[in-house]
Amino acid sequence: MISSHRLSRGLVSALWLTALALGCGVARAAEPDLGTCRQDLRRGNYEECLRVAGEAVKQTTWDDEWPMLLAKAQLALGKYPEAEVTITNALERYHRSVQLRVLAYDVFNANGDTNRSAAVLAEISELAGARARSYTEPLDLVALGKAALLLDTDPKIVLDRFFDKAKRDDPNCREAYLASGQVALDKHDYQLAAKVYQEALAKFPDEAEAGYGLARAFEPSDQEQMGQALDATLKLNTNHVGAMVLLADHLVDAEQYGEAEKVLAQALKVNPWDPEAWAYRAVLANLRSDPGAEREARGKALNFWASNPRVDQLIGQKLSENYRFLEGSVRQRQALAFAPSYLPAKIQLSQDLLRLGQEAEGWRLADEVHARDGYDVTAYNLVALHSTLSKFQTLTNQDFIVRMDAREARIYGDRVLELLGRAKQTLSAKYGLRLESPTTIEIFPEQKDFAVRTFGVPHNPGFLGVCFGPVVTANSPASAGGHPANWEAVLWHEFCHVITLGLTKNKMPRWLSEGISVYEEKQENRVWGQSMNPRYREMILGHDLTPVGDLSSAFLSPKSDFHVQFAYYESSLVVEYLVDHYGLNSLKGILEDLGKGTNIRDAISKRAEDLEKFEKGFAAFAKQRAEAMAPKLDWDKPTDSEIAQELGVKASPLPGILSGGDPFKAVQRALSATNYYDLLRRAQDALSAKKWVEAKAPLEQLVDLYPEQTGGDSAYVMLAVVHRALNETDQERAVLAKAAAMEAAATDVFQRLAELDQEAKDWNGTLENAERFVAVNPLVPQPYRFLSAAAEQLGKPTQAIQAYRELLELDPPDPADVHYRLALVLHQQGQHASAKRHVLQALEEAPRFRDAQRLLLQIEDEPPSSSAVPVPPASTERAAQ
Questions:
Q1: Which end of the chain lies in a sparser environment, N or C, as judged by fewer CB atoms within 10 Å?
Q2: Pairing mode, strands 471-475 and 439-444
Q3: Coil, strand, or helix at residue 288?
Q4: E strands present in 217-323
Q5: Distance of alpha carbon 25 from alpha carbon 143, whole angstroms
């Protein structure tokens, strides 16, 4: 079992004595052969290190570093029993070495002798108490600090009084940097870990352990930098098992299981008994639905230490990272059965349970970890988040538990429940899944809170929502900033994950899960999801189409953020191809097979055709779809050399010619009248110069030849700007109507079109565009003004009342008018008490508001049956206050 001894009196004394020690300790000067052996160990020349150190130990040298080097080489090669013999003999010889005893702790644990590992910690504590002034050298300080951590000393105290002091005493003490970085990693303080390891590499560029630590620090946030650090590590030490295992971890995330197996095989050639390598083999067996191989791999991971909690904790964590939270939680419980105080398993179990909707136990475990370890960043973040969530409002029905900011819930909470209910009715029936328990949806106005709930850390931008199965987390429109998204489409997308993850028991590749959700967005609303665009066309017809079997890796290691978006689009296109060519039942059959443990290759081969043929068919389908986009347009990009040829000069003197200038404009007139890029540039140049008439021709040509275009550079939007500048209101409205019918999140388009519709008294159009706006940003007052006015004119009092109430939540600039108009509608509907309350609130805001005064008199004087109070126009008379 893992020792949980409290800090002894002796070690407390050592803390203060070492903090007060004077002078600079200097690490032992190493003899040349000793230094060479150290280098062999760092560079992965383990066999050579073992040979040289073994000879030195036989010669009964009095330097305790030799048996330590020998034991470290034996551990690196999986010779755990031999390392135990080496350490046991050394302990009998070197009675006062704390460095040796800290290493002995690891060696005894590696052999499953936890009683001896606990005893050796007690020895260190006694030595530190009795001979504290003898252990002031930097390497001894590092060893004492490691022991203090094992005895539950506050990590901040250890960093300050041991590791940092060792660095101050000897700036070249590598071990102090490595120990500090390890503390930060253990506490999930990845920013600090990265900083420490970068400092170490700046001082010791040949230190493979620092490169490995840096890779681990970047693993949660930056795959590219992690890869660079891993590459550097394996160049310094080609036999670094930890780096190989981390690389295998990355390959598992990319669903490149065959490559991960190869890397693990290489690691096991170095150390045939490495517990983490075997743990990953168990993970791969689980992902392949091979329980026999999983048991065998786990057994080998536990071969020497049968109750090692790290093995099950690691297996469970990796399963959870692959969305198998239930299986992951079982592994964490097993780890805690081995070691009840093992905090890594406890905090991982906390997150697993929260993602499974088992919140009471999940939050309790987070509190326990935080109480035991105030430095653990994940636990701290979760405890703080729990406090934030306690202030949220909960909306419920038989199918959903929705948690939102209280103010947001009052504004659009009903819309959320209505949208989710529609999604459940549509998608449950389509895919044939009956959900037995309510789905939890949590919507966060702060991106950092969403990130903590979702990933455990507050720094993971780029996600709109995440589904764990029974639990969905989403960013509120309040956190959108300059990148608005259609929240209705986001929730539809995430609830589709609830269905598909439920059908497959979370056993599906990421590309298929995302592809179905994007596909179903578009089935519900043609403007949701993703559509072909010029950039996607170029990527498909170029070299960016990823083979279907490798599509999940496109999400993990994209070349750019745009390539991530393309991965979503390509995945949805695969689903569309599958449904169009093989039928919806084929897709449902694949999901059924995945739920039974069939791998995706076999499932596609069974329900459609052999994967290689499927991939070829899909590639042809995608190419055909790309070529079918605006086929009458010329899609060739003009190059500098082509422009130069038109000008009759060499290309080299024309740097930047594509960015504008008179020569370029001259060439534009000579190029094809149907070239997309030429037409777009001509239009943009004319708009920049406010030459509205000149901009018209290329824009009209673009919308004529490419009528399905969307996005920020849509010719429809630019053409509407031209019409507005030329006071061509009818044409502007017509163009905006076409744009709005193809956009999911263009609030500027929706607002302007609602204004024009209202002016034209097209109340259905006004209502439609106001609703479109609310589906993107329900937290600003503009759309509710249109909604309320249109609903009144269309005889929809219930909708008008709701819109006015929502508007009041948004602090409108003229609340008196809103209260008054709400009172009018309520009075018309016979809700006299509510009407009176709101008219009084209007008069509270503006006591001389004459129309409100008259309405109050009518409410007081008229009998309850009387209702017909005419609704005045929006410009209600109101005296200045």
A1: C
A2: parallel
A3: coil
A4: none
A5: 14
| DSSP 3-state of 545 | coil
Please report how the helices 534-541 and 561-582 are oriented relative to each other, as an axis angle in degrees rounded to 10: 80
Q: How far apart are the first and last CA of the chain?
A: 77
Question: Distance between CA 355 and CA 334 in Å, rounded?
Answer: 19
List the beta bridge partners of residue 28: none
Domains and CATH numbers, the chain: 1-172 (1.25.40.10), 392-504 (3.40.30.160), 507-629 (no CATH)
Helix 584-595 / helix 406-431 crossing angle, nearest 10 deg:
100
Q: What is the distance between the alpha carbons of residues 514 and 512, in angstroms, rounded to a whole number? A: 5
Residues 867 and 827 sit within 8 Å (Cβ to Cβ): yes
Whether residue 417 contacts residue 378, with contact meaning beta carbons closer than 8 Å, is answered with: no
Residue 183 and residue 159 in contact, taking contact as beta carbons nearer than 8 Å: yes
- pLDDT digits 0-9 by tens, 294-324: 999 999 999 999 999 999 999 999 999 999 9
- HSE (side-chain half, CA atoms, 13 Å) at 15: 20
From CA 549, how far away is CA 612, in angstroms rounded? 9
pTM of the model: 0.87
**Distance in angstroms (rounded) separating the CA atoms of residues 46 and 224:** 29
Contact 844, 810 (CB under 8 A): no
| Residue 483 pLDDT | 82
Could you tell me where the beta strands, DSSP code E, fall in 281-432? 393-396, 400-404
How large is the average pLDDT for residues 638-662?
47
322-341 burial, b for 16+ CB within 10 Å, e for fewer?
bbbbbbbbbbbebbbebbee
**Tokens linked to 375:** 């430095």
Please report, to the nearest 10 degrees, the dihedral formed by the alpha carbons of residues 301, 307, 311, 317 taken in order.
Answer: 150
Q: Which residues contact 669 (CB under 8 A, 6 or more apart)?
A: none
